[in-house]
Design a protein that fits this description.
With 457 residues, the protein is α/β, with parallel strands linked by helices. The chain has two domains: 6-71 and 386-451, Urease, subunit C, domain 1; 73-376, Alpha-Beta Barrel (TIM Barrel). 35% of the residues lie in helices and 21% in strands. A hairpin with a 2-residue loop joins strand 17 and strand 18 (447-451). The two termini are 19 Å apart. The relative contact order is 0.15. Bound molecules: guanine and zinc ion (ZN). Zinc ion binds at residues 77, 79, 237, 275, 327, 330.
Length: 457
């Protein structure tokens, strides 16, 4: 569908660096028919458009009372198939949670109707939270994984879609039959995505060994080869739970560490996303840094499954690249705003306990949710901020309801703005008290992919 040239007028905010927001209160961003940012103006006077040749007939979208434009969130780790269980985890920890809750649920996806219902809902829901890019785990099922890719493509969400590989220590009713079948099925999903999106412009296949305990040496090596031969990204879990780490030691006695298992298999590269990374040794972190692999920090999940608290500050200080992941349904929330808040609070717990870790700020959490995430998924040249040449992957955040003049039912969510806050305070109120009701509209590559009823462009 052809896009109109559009000029977005009003305040915009994005992350300049890890701890610095760039807040432009008088902004104007022109987005071309290709969905890319063509110009950024920082001193829009009143409603006077500066003369921009060729933009005389452009459509205009104002923030109006709403608030500000912000880059779309990037969820670097989410299990689309586990969405029905978001919030359902009881008192389990990782290994029993997988057997009790997760494998039975994922096995449903042999039923394509059920898969369609769930995948449509998770994509619509994450878009409504402002998630413009998601790195999804599907299940072992090829038709359902292909369907998830189709849904992302048709709803307009940028996505990495992974067919999960697991050929051991998994239930009989839910696992790959052999190395060959795991590779064959993964290739079938790659071919399908190539068919629906030949340039991987919006949807990209991602090679997905579930985690070392559920993959044989042969499967890990074969997936490592596929990763190298295709140049496609790869995602997996690492060092999430202490029992899991013990299991990896038993299963791979000849390897120095969990990280080494992936490295040996050719799965530790600049295009690898490692979820959790809670209990890594400094040697492992150093190896990850050397290989330039990326980390998805999933604080809500790590608390829910009592897996532990990842020392994000240490990872950042050591120069690792970190983004945030909701890890539904280890994580209870599909909202990256909530995940950012969780990241801040988990960092406060780490700081309280260790004394020498500095807690994350609002700015840092937002950086991890946007620009950091873009680096993790290897799209830092295309998304994560508002620079000329990048795609317009953005959300309009509503903060209306000044004082008593606007009725509660008309307000954009729970964020109470009294009109005297600084912009930093408004952003902090959004992070701590906001939710999807503040997400008035969402665009991916210039296309409007979600809006609230009250949004009038
Ligand atoms: N490790 C292996 N599989 C999973 C999963 O589905 N969720 C989480 N959180 N960890 C895993
Ligand atoms: Zn996960």
């Amino acid at each position: 569908m052809a896009l109109n040239k559009t000029v977005y007028i009003g305040p915009f905010i994005h992350c300049e660096s890890l701890n610095q927001l760039d807040i432009c209160t008088n902004g104007m961003i022109g987005v071309g028919e290709d969905g890319k940012i063509a110009f950024v103006s920082r001193d829009m006077k009143g409603r006077q458009l500066p003369a921009q040749e060729g933009w005389e007939h452009a459509k205009m979208v104002y923030t109006r009372q709403y608030g500000f434009f912000f880059p779309g969130f990037i969820d670097t780790h989410i299990h689309a198939s586990q969405y029905p269980n978001a919030g359902v985890f009881g008192k389990s920890t990782l290994l029993d949670w997988l057997n009790t809750y997760t494998f039975p649920l994922e096995s449903w996806f042999s039923d394509l109707d059920r898969a369609a219902r769930i995948y449509n809902r998770v994509v619509a829901r994450t878009l409504s939270h402002g998630t413009t890019t998601a790195a999804y785990y599907a299940t072992v099922h090829v038709p359902a994984t292909n369907l998830l890719a189709d849904i992302c493509k048709s709803r307009g969400q940028r996505a990495f879609v992974g067919r999960v590989c697991m050929d051991r220590l998994s239930p009989d009713y839910y696992q790959d039959e052999s190395v060959e079948s795991a590779i064959y099925d993964t290739q079938a999903c790659i071919d399908h995505i190539k068919h629906i999106d030949p340039q991987f412009d919006l949807v990209t296949p991602i090679i997905t060994p579930r985690f070392a305990p559920s993959c044989t040496d042969e499967t890990l090596a074969a997936l490592g080869k596929l990763h190298r031969d295709t140049g496609l990204p790869c995602q997996t879990h690492i060092s999430e739970n202490k029992k899991e780490i013990e299991l990896v030691k038993e299963l791979f006695p000849n390897h120095d560490s969990y990280t080494h298992v992936y490295d040996q298999a050719g799965l530790l590269t600049p295009k690898t996303i490692l979820a959790h990374a809670i209990h890594l040794s400094s040697e492992e972190r150093s190896l990850i840094k050397t290989r330039q692999a990326k980390i998805s920090h999933c604080p809500a999940s790590n608390t829910a499954l009592t897996s532990g608290r990842a020392a994000v500050r240490t990872m950042l200080d050591e120069g690792l690249t970190v983004g945030l992941g909701t890890d539904v349904s280890g994580g209870y929330t599909s909202s990256m705003l909530t995940e950012a808040r969780e990241a801040i609070f988990v960092s406060r717990h780490v700081a309280m306990e260790s004394g020498d870790e500095a807690k994350l700020s609002v700015e840092e959490a937002l950086y991890l949710a946007t620009r950091g995430g873009a680096q993790v998924v290897g799209l830092e040249d295309r998304i994560g901020g508002f620079e000329v040449g990048k795609d317009w992957d953005a959300q309009l955040i509503g903060l209306d309801g000044v004082g008593d003049t606007v009725g509660l039912d008309q307000r954009a969510g729970l964020v109470e703005i009294f009109g005297e806050e600084t912009w930093d305070e408004k952003v902090a109120k959004w992070v701590y008290t906001g939710d999807d009701r503040n997400t008035m509209a969402v665009w991916v590559k210039g296309r409007l992919v979600h809006s609230r009823e009250s949004f009038k462009p």
